[in-house]
Amino acid sequence: MDRDAYIRKLRFRASHRGTREADAMVGGFFETYHGTWDAAQFAWFERLLEEQDVDIMAWAMGIAMPPETFRGGMMDALKMLDFITLPPGLIKKY
After folding, report:
1. CA-to-CA dists, residue 91 to 14, 71, 85, 86, 94, angstroms
2. 45 within 8 A of 69, measured Cβ to Cβ
3. For 18-59, what is each residue's pLDDT tens digit?
4. What residue ranges do the domains of the chain occupy?
5. Which pTM does this prediction carry?
6. Is 1.10.260.40 the CATH number for 3-80?
7. Residues of the chain above pLDDT 70, percent
8. CA angle 37, 51, 67 (to 5 degrees)
9. Which positions ≥6 away from 53 have C-beta within 8 Å?
């Protein structure tokens, strides 16, 4: 598979998780960081995509400890959550 097709496949899988929250978290992480990843980091991300959204979100928010295979720099970047953008109008001002 050529690189562009590979990136499109991962982008789709990352941003179509099933809930807006997971789409924002996993998809936002991919969009922010994938441009600097090496082969090992892409492989890590592909393994992450196989996990359940509730688990990924719990690991990212620090509610649960990720399995050993997901610990390290990539998980640390995911835990920053500084890459999440919310659609306009989602947050109401009171």
Report:
1. 23, 32, 11, 8, 10
2. no
3. 888 899 999 999 999 999 999 999 999 999 999 999 999 999
4. 3-80
5. 0.86
6. no
7. 90
8. 80
9. 17, 18, 19, 21, 22, 26
